[in-house]
Amino acid sequence: MSVYLLALNGMIATSLTLPLEMLNAARHMHRATRQKEKVPRLYIVGESLEPVTTTGGLKLLPDCEYRDLPQADIIFIPSFWRNPAPLPNQWPTISTWIKAQHAGGARLCATGTGVFLLAGTGLLDGKPATTHWFYLELLNKMFPETLLKRNHLITQAGRVYCAGSVNSIADLTIHLIESLFGQGISARVEQQFSPEIRRRYSDLFYSFESSAPHPDEAVVLVQQWLHEHQQRQISMIEVADLFSMSQRTLNRRFREATGMTPTEWLTRLRVESARDLLNSTNLEIGDIALRCGFTDPGYFNRVFRKHMETTPGQYRISVRGKLFSP
């Protein structure tokens, strides 16, 4: 698996170096677990092997030229300083390469004004897009075929992602790390890279496919019910009866729609709720466990640690340790 970070003159360095550092952290954490799965290889890709000058004067040395590369799995397109109007026509051969890589299966992730370069390929026609807030109207004027989402910091249409800012590309990178390495490693990377100012990807993004991540309406209704009743003790046999299904049918349809059983999905939902309460309240950990449907604080501690690779207490310290106080 290969991840290409496209480096071009005039780019904002952090729009590329931040996801690079986050992905490298995930790679090292994965290796430390001694798992056999291969980790993605990261390449800084340029027009040539000459150093790329960023807006802050930092020079990046590409690992390779884009022409020499095989099919990528993920490509990051950086943001640029000042007026992005010339970007769509500035690198025509790179635009052609981006289209070919997408056709071959690559996921494309454009940050800020880099969305203009992506839009110039035509891959955003009829699809949602966002960019830096200052250039939203310019993007709408230059590319009226896009479905501009002014109120969303991240958009997704299949394998095409737009992030409105460097902070948003950090959120998107966490989401990608979870898909590559799993929730445990993504949580550890999140804790390392300023978790106290992050919001979950699901709270930020606009998905073109649907407001729900799958088309099974019955399963969506079950998910909504579980969300509303997560504090109580839940029997999946009773849930299946409530929605006029056998437990076997419920499990099968739920797994087909979400990749998880209803019990696994509910546990993950409860852990996410616990994270929010640990971050935003001073409730005792035992009280948080009860509010999230865990009657046994010891069991809550074990489940939280399994999902987050840290205890609830350690997580609270990590997310609050950088907050300023008067």
Main sheet?
Answer: 8 strands, mixed
Q: Which structural class best describes the helix and strand composition?
A: alpha/beta
* Helix fraction bin: 40-55%
| CATH topology descriptor of the largest domain | Rossmann fold
Number of helices: 15
Q: How would you describe the shape?
A: globular
**If classified by CATH, what would the architecture of the largest domain be?**
3-Layer(aba) Sandwich
Element-by-element helix/strand order: EHEEEEEHHEHEHEEEHHHEHHHHHHH
CATH superfamily of the largest domain: Class I glutamine amidotransferase (GATase) domain
- Give the low-pLDDT segments: 322-326
Task: Please supply descriptive tags for the structure shown above.
alpha/beta, Arc Repressor Mutant, subunit A, 2 domains, 8-stranded mixed β-sheet, 48% helix
